[in-house]
Amino acid sequence: MDQTVMLGHGSGGSMMKRIIDEVFLAAYPSAELLQGNDAAVLPAPSAGERLAFSTDGFVVSPHFFPGGDIGRLAVCGTVNDVATSGAKPLYLSCGFILEEGFPIDDLKRICQSMADVAKEAGVSLVTGDTKVVNKGHGDGIYITTAGIGLIPEGIDLGGQNIKPGDAVLVSGTLGDHGITVMSCREGLSFKTDLQSDAAPLNHLIADVLSAAPHTRCFRDPTRGGLASTLNEFAQQANVDITIEEDAIPVKDSVRGACEMLGYDVLQVANEGKMVCVVDANEAQVALRAMQANKYGADAAIIGYVSSVQPDRLPKVYLKTSFGGTRILDMLVGEQLPRIC
Amino acid sequence: MDQTVMLGHGSGGSMMKRIIDEVFLAAYPSAELLQGNDAAVLPAPSAGERLAFSTDGFVVSPHFFPGGDIGRLAVCGTVNDVATSGAKPLYLSCGFILEEGFPIDDLKRICQSMADVAKEAGVSLVTGDTKVVNKGHGDGIYITTAGIGLIPEGIDLGGQNIKPGDAVLVSGTLGDHGITVMSCREGLSFKTDLQSDAAPLNHLIADVLSAAPHTRCFRDPTRGGLASTLNEFAQQANVDITIEEDAIPVKDSVRGACEMLGYDVLQVANEGKMVCVVDANEAQVALRAMQANKYGADAAIIGYVSSVQPDRLPKVYLKTSFGGTRILDMLVGEQLPRIC
């Protein structure tokens, strides 16, 4: 096998066939990929099942970091986006944009990581594409995944469903992914066990939906962090959201790193956390369902939804540890580029 | 609006919201995108309809060329791959990887081009993602699309269905796209009307299927050209395929450019052509259906399928204009990088 990616691996010819056989099919030999047609043909859904469809691109630098790599992110990111609709994620596509010279061993490691986490999530990689760009016109590897899930009849989730009185939950500690990648990249050492939280959350979502049928919506607070997710919700449903700083789970090591570096942890990216809005009557059962899942041990109820104040636009408020209240804005500008 | 793409446009924060609203939603305001959730929720298919799913990445250089641009390619490429399964393509996702500094006006032009050709094809852009990489780590814009189509009951297409005795058709002239992009890039001027053939072929495929119900398969001869597509078919179905050089439609300008530059036109990429294998009894009706479509005027029957010769591997043979026969191999190495 070749040692590095060459332009010919994207040619559509015999070298491309070789990289497909020896790298991609070796890692995830799904029946649909092995069929070798241009489109994967997938079974007919059951009556009434709607489709959920989402895509996510990954350009993280570095490609490997504590707790994961670009491949794990690429599978988890799309699995989680599809799952937020209440769908069971089933099928993934994967488009690679490789830079000439990228080590084949790194590509194999990334594909194995994708295969492992896809198996955990219960999804199949069924179709893919590979392009190769000249040295100097990429950054080793970019991955764009898209995913299809099936939504059972009767499930209808989305930010538009949020109502005043609802409770806001988060499935665990914030900021782990962003601070880990940034530390890696800058060569910082906090002498801690910082690692990315990248994880597939579809099973956690299914657990919550089963326990709390009046769940309004899920969203994963990736780029822009919790602050951006809550502001999106507030605008989408035209409501105010108030959260309590003391209720928000943050690891000491992450809090310390944020203070030292001047980041607001509420704007730092996560890759294995869900924000969930539920009917207040079901907040406790939703919380317990999260906590019973291996990716939700640190879940917490962090706030509530209320009507917009008269003559004001929808806002997100943060009750601080010091007893004050401040407006929590969406991230402005770019905090940590290439975080996912 | 900003003049160029900045890192903040990929932040997940307010700048990203701005580029989504002012560029993407302005070009293709589908109901699903406007909903603003992480996954598009799509209607339930009718009973028995299977899903077709495909993805394709686009890294073409230059981004604009006679007959198209990277946006038109990104929509047509995935529409065509989905349609090869016999599916009606319906939904597209779109992942952008933008380089810091890319002109917003170029991005708008590309998005408008995507919207126009999506409308022609009858597909909706329903979900998307945008990442921004630092200057020097990309090449302006890369696009990865994925597409979903629905396959009616009873349709079963694929290279595995090809049988000895079948006829091989191509929907028009070969090499137009590859030679156009290459000429553009190298600043060559052939004083001709060369232009890319990039086109959505889903309606042409539907026309052929309706006229020739015993169609075995379609495949678009993109990277690697007709030579690679036919070799894939031969291997997939374990058959020999023989084509006649004189029957293959090639524009004089493309033939001339290929001769001058030393390219084999049968290995040059196309973006608006279909290879189709049909039961020989339906070859004429399939041909007439192609020719009646605006993208199939130059369609031709170019060869036939036969059993593999005893003790040989499956091969593709070319009967040359001079009366000889040579083996037509899959492209080896890379001929024209960054062609799509």
Quick take:
Chain A has helices at 14-27, 31-35, 70-83, 104-121, 176-186, 202-211, 225-237, 252-261, 283-292; strands at 40-42, 50-58, 64-65, 68-69, 88-99, 124-133, 141-151, 167-170, 215-219, 239-244, 275-278, 300-307, 316-319, 325-327. By secondary structure, chain A is of the alpha+beta class. In chain A, strand 13 and strand 14 (325-327) form a beta hairpin.
Could you characterize the architecture of this molecule?
2 copies of one chain form a homodimer. By secondary structure, chain A is an alpha+beta fold. Chain A folds into 2 domains: 7-151, PurM-like, N-terminal domain (60s Ribosomal Protein L30, Chain: A, 2-Layer Sandwich); 159-327, PurM-like C-terminal domain (Phosphoribosyl-aminoimidazole Synthetase, Chain A, domain 2). Chain A has helices spanning 14-27, 31-35, 70-83, 104-121, 176-186, 202-211, 225-237, 252-261, 283-292; strands at residues 40-42, 50-58, 64-65, 68-69, 88-99, 124-133, 141-151, 167-170, 215-219, 239-244, 275-278, 300-307, 316-319, 325-327. In chain A, the strands form 3 sheets. A 7-stranded mixed β-sheet of chain A has the order 9-11-8-12-10-13-14. In chain A, strand 3 (64-65) and strand 4 form a beta hairpin. In chain A, helix 3 (70-83) runs parallel beside helix 4 (104-121) and helix 6 (202-211) packs antiparallel against helix 9. The longest helix of chain A is centred in the first third of the chain and has 18 residues, at 104-121. The relative contact order of chain A is 0.16. Chains A and B meet through helix 1, strand 1, strand 2, helix 3 and strand 5 of A and helix 1, strand 1, strand 2, helix 3 and strand 5 of B. Strand 2 (50-58) of chain A pairs antiparallel with strand 1 (40-42) of chain B, so a sheet runs across the interface.
